[in-house]
Amino acid sequence: MKLRIFKVLFISTFVLGSILNFSNIEAQENKGSIQIDLNLVSNYVWRGHDFFRNYAIQNWKQYGPHSGIWAFQPSITWNTPVNGLYVNLFSSLALQGREDKDIDKRIQTQPGGAFIQNRTSLLDYKDPSLNLEQDIKSSLPTSNQVSDYQNIPNFYKEQVGLKRSDELDITIGYESDTNVGIIGFGILHYSYANVTQVNTAYGTEVFITYAFPFLKELRFSIYEDLQIHTIYYNISYGGEYQLTNELTSSYNISSGYYVLDNVQGVSDITLNYTISHSSGFSFGINIAYRPDLWIQDYYFGSGDLITGEVNNTKLPIDINGQSTIYDGQVADPSLSLGPINEYVNNQISQLVTNTTGIPFTYTPRQKLPKYLWWISLGYSITIE
User: Fold this and answer.
1) 33 touches 57 (CB < 8 A)
2) Residue 61 and residue 369 in contact, taking contact as beta carbons nearer than 8 Å
3) Does pTM top 0.90 for this prediction?
4) pLDDT, tens digit (0-9, with 9 covering 90-100), for 166-198
5) 204 in Cβ contact with 222 (< 8 Å)
6) Are the CB atoms for 273 and 249 separated by under 8 Å?
7) What domains lie within the chain, and their CATH numbers?
8) How far is CA 49 from CA 239, 361, 365, in A?
């Protein structure tokens, strides 16, 4: 942890020092400003990823185009006295579905674990040897160590609460409108509440941006993660126009391309349309199209396999009841969670295994939705 913090501070200091040297700063009258943006969004979508997909798991529902979970996303930007140099703090806090929940209804020794004594389900009454009382007793610790009693048989809550996606980002950046175009660069550090929502609990990216001097509405950006070395390329086009004396309309369309260890592809094509009032209030409609679903399947984690080989056989992976990261399919919460679903799916698995002699695990799957949408309500104020 100390090494990570030191690295972030070192890189931030280096970037800030480079900016100051690059700017050739002299005394000036500009005292800077602070911009405060307070936003409510009906879903949290970032680069095509649905941060609130765990809400479907909480409620045993299919993944859909809109989670319906509201989040509070404040942002504070300090435009420093140095022209072009800014510091931004962004946070996201889920307002619903925050707490963990027992989604599998199992008697287990830890969250997400198997049934005690490897039982398939509490509904497996066909087993004449079923004796829950005996199973529980045999699963109890045999020693007097206090630590052993932390994992005694119980109905545990799984780590699916949306509080685990709470986030705080820090950005230090510089942007200048030069004769050769608008040039920007900086460093962005992400901190998340828990690793169950994303691949890592934190991330640090460096970025550069550029826009042509003759077409400033078109912007090219590159983000590289310094820890897991992913690269995200983004191109965006946006602008605004006056509707009335008090209303302004703005739009932005962007496309992002991810380069990861095992896959690469277009993660999102996102459209934002916002109407703002001179008082600072705004209303926005947002849509994200996800052409290459394997980016969501792989990078944001579904537990699917990279290769098509299952149980040391060469059969097509879908015939074996499995899925790869490349097909954009994930386990369907509405058909795979809960005692009844687990019992039915286990019976199918056993039937196929006994009939064919090939180990088979049946998991009902669904395609991830190609589209995500959400609305945003905001208020902005600038303090000079």
Assistant:
1) no
2) no
3) no
4) 999 999 999 999 999 999 999 999 988 765 444
5) no
6) yes
7) 32-101+159-293+368-383 (2.40.160.40), 105-157 (no CATH), 299-367 (no CATH)
8) 24, 28, 19
